[in-house]
Amino acid sequence: MDGVxxxxxxxxxxxxxxxxxxxxxxxxxxxLQSYLDEEIKNIVQGGLDRLLSxxxxxxxxxxxxxxxxxxxPEGRVTLDKTHSDENSDPYLRRLKSQGxxxxxxxxxxxFIQSLKSKIAEGNLVPIIEFLRANAKIETPRVYQGVSPAxxxxxxxxxxxxxxxxxxxxxxxxxxxPPLPRGLFKDRAPDE
Length: 191
Description:
By secondary structure, the protein is mainly α. Helices cover 52% and strands 8% of the residues. It has a 3-stranded antiparallel sheet.
């Protein structure tokens, strides 16, 4: 009977240790999940901040007319300029009828702030889709008067600080050593 009690006691201790380990693991997983949720929110907020600053920088480059921010039905943000308000401009009225949102810069800033408040609520999927629609692929800048093809075809100028000289890549002045005799052994003589 004492043997059974000892086995049961050992088993209970082992189960309690396993339970403590499982609780510790669950606590660690909960901390990791909280950290990841917070990081995702920070990344999405950073994406919204970058989009807002990009729009502001591009708007500063438009010098004629009033700047309007156009948001397509797919969520793509573009800038345009207008010389009248959106109700009297036929182009903007047509875009509005096609489902575009037309905002001024302060209205767009307020729109971004409203998206940030949705992040705090945990509704991230529509905001991530909005940011994905506005992800830009970086392309090299092309200057006026230079086509992309001719810029790519032009050789780079050599750097004066380079250790290499063109003569380093020229053939050696002495004849090359002969090839080993057995190298082409399997070839037929008439080939």
